Structures are given as C-alpha cells and as structure tokens.
Amino acid sequence: MTQQWRLDRTYRSTAGAVRWTTFGEDGAPPLVLLHGTPFSSYIWRDVARALAGRFQVYVWDMPGYGDSEMATGQDVSLAKQAEVLTELFAHWGLDAREPTVAAHDFGGYVALRAHLVHGLRYRRLALLDAVVLTGWGSPTYRLLGSHPEVFGRLPAGLHRALVTEYIGSGSHPGLHPVALERIVAPWCTEEGQAAFYRQIEQNGLDLTDDLEGRLGELTVPTLVGWGAEDSWLPVAWAHKLAAAVPGARLRLFEGAGHLVQEDAPAELAAVLAAFAGADASGPA
C-alpha cells in the first residue's frame, strides 16, 4: 500500500513537463490510467503493478499535479489536459493500438473530451467515480472554488492541514498515514500550494456542461465503477451516468469511498483485468 512510486520518464507537453512511466511487457495490450484531483498517478500504484502481468500499463501525472511541472501562469484546465493526453497517445504510439482507458474523478472528463472532441480511439473505457455530469463538486471543492484568492494566502501550516483533511475525506475506511502524506506532499511546497488553488480556479463547476449531452454518442464498451460509500460524488451519480451511456455496465465497490483505488485496490484490479482483458490479444 505504501510502496515507492517513481515516474522515471519525461514528456515535454504544450502544458509543461509531464512525468510518466510504464509497467509490464512491451507489446502487451495497452492500458492507460488517468488520475483526478487533487491526486496524482500515485493512487494507481497497487492497481498498476497488479495489472502489469497482463497489460502494458501507462501512468502519468497531469501538468500541475504530482511530479509533473507546476508553474505560474500554467494552463491546467481540463480542456488542456485532454490535449495533453492526445499528445501522449502520439508519443506512446497508441494512436493505432486502441488502449483500454481507466479514468478516475476529473480523469473521466479528460478521457471523454479526448475521445469525443479530439478523436482518440479506445478499445474500452472505465469511468471510476468520474466527474462527468453537471452538478458535481463536493462541498469543500465548492468552498475552495468560491474563494481561491483567500485560501491561496493561507500560511503553509494551515494550507497543509486543509489539504490533508480534504484528501483524507476521499477514503471511506481512511488512508494509511504514509499514503496520505505522499498524496498531500506535492501540494505543500511553495509551487505546490499555488498549483493547488490554480487547478481549482481554472476548473469551475460548469466545466462538464459541454460533454454531458454527448454521452449518448459513446459506442466504446464502457464500465462505470463507483465506491458505494463515495461522499464526494454519491452513488446516485453512478446510476445516472450508467443510464446515460449506451450499454454501460455498472459495478459498485462496497465499503469504498471516492478513492476506490485506495479503498479496494485488489477488487478494482480484478474488475479492470476482466473488463480490459475481454477479447484482448497480446502476450499471455
């Protein structure tokens, strides 16, 4: 659960340096994992390693998050993140391989926009506790988004306490202290504190309005996965999203909160392996 996590490769995107890595055998069926906010690829560590025996797993930190570049004036809007994902597909040579994509939280919007607007092709798509439908936003996110200039001036200690409490609330049983600190730490440098409020300010509550009406256009096989105890995006959203996507399958993870990767990693890995492995070809 608290294993080391190192993204050892860099791609210079149009939004800044992106740190990324891959697990598994070259040429195995590709699987791309997307994180959301205020997280990083670190939350995928157990799932990525579990799936590496069957897939070539790609993980990355979005610009402005985790180990990727954080810079004043940086465009970290989700529209831009979708462009960066499109750049990465070309960089990774995935344009013709049609990977399975598993996307969490904001990553759901990024994956959908890259597919519906930029034309990225997926073999399968898993949307996990995804920010897709209009009306999203935990009470904390809404409060921070209403006054980013005020919260951005918090003393470092108060900022750390706020971010720690906020991130911790994403887990239903509670995060291991080492894992919690690892997720919090990137937001607690001078650059990280500014980046934390920057990404909230640039991604307002109306950001999903442009895609919700297009969910019926999806033809890629889709899995909607949700923590049954998600307090940020309650489970009713899962049912609504699954009903909006033609043919979508719904899978609830009992006892898991918003951070299903942390709360139920083994179960999630098994579900994604079965979903991504259906009709997949590649090394055994």
Secondary-structure topology with pairs:
Blueprint: E1 9-13, E2 16-23, E3 30-34, H1 45-51, E4 56-60, H2 78-92, E5 100-104, H3 106-116, E6 124-128, H4 139-146, H5 148-151, H6 156-168, H7 177-184, H8 190-202, H9 209-212, E7 222-227, H10 236-244, E8 249-253, H11 260-263, H12 265-277
Parallel strand pairs: 3-4, 3-5, 5-6, 6-7, 7-8
Antiparallel strand pairs: 1-2, 2-4
Description of the molecule:
Residues 31-271 form the AB hydrolase-1 domain. GO terms for molecular function: haloacetate dehalogenase activity. It holds the Pfam family Abhydrolase_6. The structure is a single chain. By secondary structure, the protein is an alpha/beta fold. The protein has a single domain (9-136, 207-277), classed as Alpha/Beta hydrolase fold, catalytic domain (Rossmann fold, 3-Layer(aba) Sandwich), CATH 3.40.50. The protein is 38% helix and 15% strand. It has twelve helices and eight strands. The protein has helices at 45-51, 78-92, 106-116, 139-146, 148-151, 156-168, 177-184, 190-202, 209-212, 236-244, 260-263, 265-277; strands at residues 9-13, 16-23, 30-34, 56-60, 100-104, 124-128, 222-227, 249-253. Strands 1-2-4-3-5-6-7-8 form an eight-stranded mixed beta sheet, with helices on both faces. Helix 6 (156-168) crosses helix 7. It is globular, with a radius of gyration of 17 Å. The two termini are 26 Å apart. The mean pLDDT is 92.
